[in-house]
Amino acid sequence: MTPTPLPKKTPARAAIAAWIGTTLEYYDFAVYGTSSALIFNVLFFSPELPQGVSVLLSMITFAVGYAVRPLGSLILGPMGDRFGRKFVMMITLFGIGGCTFLIGCLPTFAQLGALAPILLVLIRVIQGLCLSGEQASAISMSLEHASDRRRGFITSFTTLGSSTGTLLTLLVFIPIAAMPKEQLLTWGWRIPFWLSALVVVVAFLIRRHVQEPPEFIKNQSLNVNKSPLKHLLRFHWRAVLRIVFCALIAGTSYMMQTFSVAFGTTGYGLDKPTMLLTTTVSAVVALAITPVAGFLVDKIGRRTMFLLGTVGVGITMVPYLWSITTGNWPLIFLFGIINYSLFYSMVNASWPSFFAEMFPGRLRVSGLALGTQIGFAISGVIGPVLSTALAGPDLKGWVGPSIIAVGFMLVAGISALTGRETTKYTLAELDEVQQGDQEKATVAAAKLATSSASRDFAAPTGAKE
């Protein structure tokens, strides 16, 4: 019987499918994050609460969606390795988009009282579970469809969606935020959530034509995708832990796009549309810089680019937050662009290939999902929530949040230094290297167990025969 031929690699189609999916993910992130900073604190919590407390509670509902993502990764990650990258990408597409649409339909505190924020949190939990498998599956899909010389560039399109989604959100939100207050707080705030349905339709039309990558089909035919989570935690837990710490740098992005908006508008009374324009301009510039950074990832290395971006984004968050306290718009725009457009684009372009290549193909979605989602959950909670708490009840303190950003930088940078530079390896060679690492770990564990058993049964020193 003639074996079924493997599908051809389609890097462009895989990159576009990953891009549009991440656009939806970050559209949701930016819509909800912006609403948390500007609207939800007014609509979904008691008006009797102090303003700073309402904002903090609103940021907590934002963080809940990240807190549940590690749990989702334990479900969707292994599904991506067992049943297919495309299979999971379709689940996450409709899960994310459907929840975003439903949030736009929710009644407010004035209509339902305390039940309103409970429903909001419940939908965020479901959405967070769906989000946990999106990027890991999309990155694995695009990585395995790419040629060996362009893996960094092709996978950078996945995170290019972060800038596209943010930009799309802000283009919608700027006119919404400028609406008269009565219209904004009755029906205007719902429009950005309802528009997510359009992104879902476009993403579905693109994704339905993408085939599973040849590497996955080959592994499936060899029946090597059984118990991916068990093998991952037994042999590749160090890589998972490394990614958890590296992924903490995402906390600076959450601070930039969520906390800083509340910090500027609530703490210092800055104009809301202009504050949103800061992140809009940064996202536009990032659209141009991210593919260039992705091209350089294949030239100078994944780890090198990640480290450069991590150090830059951590350091420049300090003057960015300080500039908000001055109310000087040219400074705010300047440091915002340097921080997000330049340095965070370098992080965004490098981490997909850097993280994904730490795992063999049969475990890639599981490892990437678990590591990133734990890291993103921690940074998604610490970034906006702890920064808001450290800014004080009047949201005027900038030193505490700056320390948080520098802390993210140090932890992520030190962790990245422990990783292997994988640029010059093919995916097949990486599988062989990681198989060798697994065998060494098995031998070391066996020796340790044997040595321990020998000590347990050895006669005590000085014992008489």
Describe the structure.
- The protein has a single domain (11-210, 225-441), classed as Growth Hormone, Chain: A, CATH 1.20.1250.20.
- Helix 5 packs antiparallel against helix 7.
- The chain has helices at residues 11-38, 40-43, 51-67, 69-82, 85-103, 109-112, 115-131, 134-145, 151-177, 181-186, 191-194, 196-207, 214-221, 228-235, 237-246, 250-267, 272-300, 302-326, 329-356, 364-390, 399-417, 427-457.
- The protein is mostly helical.
- The protein contains 22 helices and no strands.
- The longest helix is centred in the last third of the chain and has 31 residues, at 427-457.
Write a concise synopsis of the structure shown.
The chain has helices at 11-38, 40-43, 51-67, 69-82, 85-103, 109-112, 115-131, 134-145, 151-177, 181-186, 191-194, 196-207, 214-221, 228-235, 237-246, 250-267, 272-300, 302-326, 329-356, 364-390, 399-417, 427-457.
What brief labels describe this structure?
globular, Growth Hormone, Chain: A, disordered C terminus, 465 residues, 22 helices, mainly alpha
CATH H level: which superfamily?
MFS general substrate transporter like domains
- How much of the sequence lies in strands comes to under 5%
Distance between the termini: 68 Å
Considering DSSP H and I runs of 4 or more, what fraction of the residues is helical? over 70%
Indicate the CATH topology.
Growth Hormone, Chain: A
Major beta sheet summary: none
CATH class wording: Mainly Alpha
What Rg, in angstroms, do the CA atoms define?
23 Å
Count of β-strands: 0
- CATH architecture, please? Up-down Bundle
The average pLDDT value, as a whole number, equals: 85
Number of domains: 1
List low-pLDDT spans: 459-465
Number of helices: 22
Q: What is the molecular shape?
A: globular
